[in-house]
Amino acid sequence: MQKLIVWFISLLALSFFTGCAAFRHSVEEVDVDETRHYDERYGHSDLRELSADLSSQLLDSAFMEERTDSPVVMIAGIRNDTDEYIDTRSITDRMRVLLMNSGRMRFIHEARRAELLAEQGYQAEHVEPETQVAIGRQLGAQYMLTGAFSKIATASPRQVRVSRRRMNYYKLTMEVTDLQTGEIKWVAEHDFAREAREPLFRW
Amino acid sequence: MTGNFQGRMICPALRVSLLFAICLLASGCGTPHLERARLDFYRGRIPEAAASLEKVSVPRRDRVLFLMERGTIYQAAGDYERSLNDFLAAYDQLRETEPLSVSEGVTSFVINDMVRSFRGYPFERTFLHVFAALSHLSLGAWENAAVEGRRILNSLDPERIGDYPEDAFSRYMAGFALEMMGDIDNARVQYRRASALNPSIAITDFGQPYIGQTERDDAPSADGSDSATKPEPPDPGQHELVVFVLSGKTTEHPLTGTRFGQPRIPYALIKADGKVLGRSYSLTDTTKLAQLSEQKRIALQVAKTTTRVLIKEAIAESIRDNNESLGLLARFILIGLLEHPDIRRWETLPRYMQVARIPSPPDLGNVEVSLMSRDGVQLQSTTLQNTHKRGRVHVALVRFY
What we know:
The structure holds 2 protein chains of 2 kinds.
Chain A (H helix, E strand, L loop, with lengths): L1 H17 L25 H16 L2 H4 L6 E9 L7 H14 L4 E2 L5 H14 L16 E13 L7 E16 L5 E16 L1 E2 L1
Parallel strand pairs in A: 1-2, 1-3
Antiparallel strand pairs in A: 3-4, 4-5
Chain B lengths: L1 H26 L4 H11 L3 H7 L10 H14 L3 H17 L3 E2 H7 L13 H17 L3 H14 L2 H4 L6 H13 L3 H14 L3 E3 L5 E3 L27 E9 L10 E2 L2 E2 L3 E6 L2 E5 L1 E5 H37 L1 H14 L14 E9 L6 E6 L5 E6 L3 E4 L2 E7 L2
Parallel strand pairs in B: 4-14
Antiparallel strand pairs in B: 2-3, 4-10, 5-6, 7-8, 7-11, 9-10, 11-12, 13-14
Helix pairs in contact in B: 1-13, 2-3, 4-5, 5-7, 7-8, 7-10, 8-10, 10-11, 12-13
């Protein structure tokens, strides 16, 4: 018993004097361009990579090469076909930033239609005529940007081992559809897979 | 001499006191707030049940159960966002506790199984996603409901579920969530699997439940609404109303609600502006599900309990070698006080999980859902408050207590 107490006090003193990192709270800035994954699931690095790659594919595509003007596009969203809560809107928001900043594409704000109409209605009733915006002059979209995000998950079978491997394969497919003809004018995909090894035991 | 005698008395006494203190701390106290909330819940005092759990902290090992219970209570109170916060937090916690804990395992061999982090039976882990899907459907969040639908299917993977039973309602929910996102083929697969899991209720490829032609295990209803005729597929333009009806208490005795051993499952009758649209069919009895799950676990449980009691006896005997009285005290604490089974369960689950999928007018109007006994007596009634529409399908959730 005495030995136990001595050991305990020694350990306590050691951790106190060494300033054990396990007991310290620390914060550090992380470069968003740095790829970091703590598990096999979708993360912020994937969002940045997906959106950058697909935007680049779209801008370099034959569909854009053939154009002499900047097409007007509406974003209808990416369908989430996975079993994770993925904010697909973040992906399209980031793609919109990259595509608009290229100066080669224009977008309409379909998500804010209700607010736009509400503001126009308000102006029509309450705002001086010379400062009112004209009603019925919204830009019509020519193309629709949509996508689907899917996932295939696999795991190593139950074995006599101390860890288990899980692998997730993700695929994002994006397409641009002509709103007038219904024709798909461009389609591309970006896929990646990630494997994590998880312990079967924890403390 | 006196000093030596005192030293010999104190050392074992200190050991026993230390042992008692450690055991007490490790086993933890009960969760009175949760018990009170459960009582309020089943008395229909939902706001009180929800309020009593708002700012409660529970030991980490009981956190998953607490979140499941609170999430169900919030859902019953119509606070779907908060219920989802709790269900998703419970899922994250379950993921964290998936690796087996060495410390918990060792401690459980000295104290009892209550020191282990609650993970529930496989059907409870599946219901976590079922109830999350119900909350999403109640918010009209179809895509998120489909995420939970896929999680339901993951949880029913044979690797995860092993020999434990699965239930028809979970399969149905997964299928319905996928159907709402346009994945009709996979929805049909799940409807067929749900149909195969329930001996008395069949489900068409379009998700319409009806009394199957095979074995029937409950009494016919007094109003003759049990239709053994397979419903016609809905017309392309036909609107439908899907009502998920939850009733009863999962903690009821399996023989409750039976007459001469034959189940008499209540059902919901749905009327719009006074006209009967249809009724619900029971896909899952959670009491039976829990009973079957317990039977699977019992062999393992008996072996572990026997081992634990032997270990405790050995500890008590080693203390008794030094001091008879302290040895008896240690035995009393370890076996008398601390040896009890892990009876933690998700108690706010309903007993009967039912589905009604019926043709409806495009505008629902005033829809009344009445819980009927098999004898045709109206037990409870409510008006549909919150429905969401996806295409031609209205969806609603009703809970009776």
